[in-house]
Specification:
Carbamate kinase, 19% strand, alpha/beta, globular, nine-stranded mixed beta sheet, 238 residues
């Protein structure tokens, strides 16, 4: 096996990665498929932390369109991320991967409270750690939560695992001439308003020199190749 480029990573997943064919809810088969991807990279000796969104369960934008208070909509989204974290934890543990869920909102019956040093210790012991409930505060996305947790646990790269194979200058599903970027700087992403992650997350990564790698979650070899240093997806860095 080739030398590993990154020893500890934070994997950012969209809630849609767990959804069924209709794009909503939690499909156990999809959870198992995601768990299999995580198991493969964990077997390489890589320490894996995960932040997952809740777009498959709740989209706050819909609530806001009906006059819902932003903080209420955001807290509902945070609860949804914990549900997704538990579903993924269950799939991982059934696959033989020791996993811990830590929540930024205290709910001791179902998850550990987020404690930075405990999270790092879990990673050092080879456990996968899933961070739920975002940052614990409204007005911050799970992208920002991913960047924050990655910096806190000293991850060497933040991997944005999506359904496309990198960052394009326009939507490749709508524009057959869309151009894929092999690499970008943080400033490029902000200036071009490219939909990699939100601007708060990009700025946090830039301030802490944390590279962001955008890859296709469903490519069976993309994650492994990227972690071995091959040029896969799009790398955002200084």
């Amino acid at each position: 096996m080739a030398d590993l480029k990154y020893k500890r990573v934070l994997l950012k997943l969209g809630g849609e990665s767990l959804a069924g064919p209709n794009g909503f809810g939690i499909d156990p088969e999809r959870a198992e498929a995601v768990a299999a991807r995580v198991k493969d990279i964990r077997a390489m000796g890589i320490e894996v932390a995960i932040v997952i969104g809740a777009g498959n369960l709740w989209r706050g934008k819909q609530g806001l369109e009906h006059g819902m208070e932003r903080a209420t909509a955001d807290y509902m989204g945070m609860m949804g991320t914990v549900m997704n974290a538990m579903a993924l934890m269950d799939a991982l543990e059934r696959g033989g991967v020791y996993t811990r869920v830590q929540s930024a909102i205290e709910m001791r019956a179902v998850a550990e409270p987020y404690i930075r040093r405990r999270a790092i210790r879990h990673l050092e012991k080879g456990r996968v750690v899933i961070f739920g409930a975002g940052t614990g505060n409204p007005f911050f996305s799970t992208d920002t939560a991913a960047a924050l947790r990655a910096v806190e646990v000293d991850a060497k790269v933040l991997i944005k695992a999506t359904k496309v194979d990198g960052v394009y200058d326009s939507d490749p599903q709508k524009n057959p001439d869309a151009r894929k970027f092999d690499s970008l700087t943080y400033i490029d992403v902000l200036n071009r308003r490219l939909s990699v992650m939100d601007s708060t997350a990009i700025s946090l990564c830039m301030d802490n020199s944390l590279p962001i790698l955008v890859v296709n979650l469903w490519d069976p070899y993309a994650l492994e190749r990227a972690l071995q240093g091959e040029k896969v997806g799009t790398l955002v860095s200084a």
